[in-house]
Amino acid sequence: MSTPAPAAASAAVTRHSRFEDLQALLSGTLLIALAVLMYRHAGLLSGGTAGLAFLGHYASGWRFGTLFFLINLPFYWLAWRQMGRAFSVKTFLAVLLLSAESEVLPQLISFRTLEPLYAAVMGGLLMGTGFLILFRHRASLGGVGILALALQERRGWRAGHVQMAVDVMIVAMALWLVEPQKVLMSIAGAVALNMILAINHRPGRYIAQ
User: Fold this and answer.
1) 49-56 contacts: CB < 8 A, separation 24 or more?
2) Angle in degrees, 0-180, between the axes of helices 159-172 and 48-60, rounded to the nearest 10
3) Which pLDDT score is estimated for 175?
4) What's the rounded Cα separation, in Å, for the pair 77 and 84?
5) With CB atoms counted within 10 Å of each terminal CB, which end of the chain scores lower, N or C?
6) CA gap 39, 186 in Å, rounded
7) Do residues 102 and 36 touch, judged by C-beta distance below 8 A?
8) For 170, which DSSP code?
9) Domain segments of the chain: what residues?
10) What percent of the chain has pLDDT over 90?
11) Which residue has the higher pLDDT, 3 or 71?
12) pLDDT tens-digit profile of 6-37?
C-alpha cells in the first residue's frame, strides 16, 4: 500500500498578493527603521550596507538615509541579474522606504533613557524580524542581503550565517571611529539579528513567494 505524499509537498506554492507584499515592505522596514533609530541614539553600528552608512554618517555627518540609499545603488544590478525583476523592484522600494522612514522617525520618537547594550540586542532582534519579513516576501535591503539570499537559493548556505560573517567584519572596521566597548555591543546586536535569520529562515521551511 502506497503512502500518500504530505500535503505540504503536493500543494502548489502559494504566491503573495500585491497587498501582502506591500504590507510586508512597510512592516519590515518600519521595524528596521526603529532599530536604526535606537542604534543612532546609542552610537552603535549594524552590519551590511546599513553599517557602511552608519560609518559614513559618524565620519562625515551626512544623513543616514541619504547614504544608505546611495550605497545600495550598485547592488541593484546584482539583484536584477541574480534574483530577477520582481525581487529587484521590491528591494528598491524597501530601500527607498527605509531611507525615508529613518529620516522621519526621529521626528516622531525620542528616547529619554536607552542603555546601549539593550539598544544593541533589542535593535538586533527588531532588525532580524524586519529582515525575516522582507526575505519571506522575496525582498531585501540590498547589499549583503542580496548576496546572502542568492547563496542560500543557489548553494543552500543559510542566509543568516552568510550575513553574520559579513556583519561582524563590517562592525570590526569601526574600531577607528567608535569606542571598543560600543563595537563589542554592536557585534552582540549583529549576532542577535542573524540568530533570528539563521533559526527562522532556512531553505525550504517557508515556500510561499
Assistant:
1) 49/75, 49/141, 49/142, 49/143, 49/144, 50/141, 51/167, 51/170, 51/171, 51/174, 52/143, 52/170, 54/174, 55/170, 55/173, 55/174, 55/177
2) 20
3) 76
4) 10
5) N
6) 9
7) yes
8) H
9) 17-107+114-200
10) 26
11) 71
12) 444 445 567 888 888 999 999 999 999 999 99
Per DSSP, helices labelled H in 105-143 are 116-136
Query: What was the pLDDT predicted at 14?
Result: 77
CA distance 154 to 117: 36
Residue 150: HSE in the Cβ half-sphere, 13 Å Cα cutoff: 16
Cβ-Cβ contacts under 8 Å for 207 (sequence gap 6 or more): 8, 13, 14
pLDDT in tens, 141-152: 877 767 777 777
Cα separation, 134 vs 25, whole angstroms? 6
Locus of grid cell 553600528 = 45
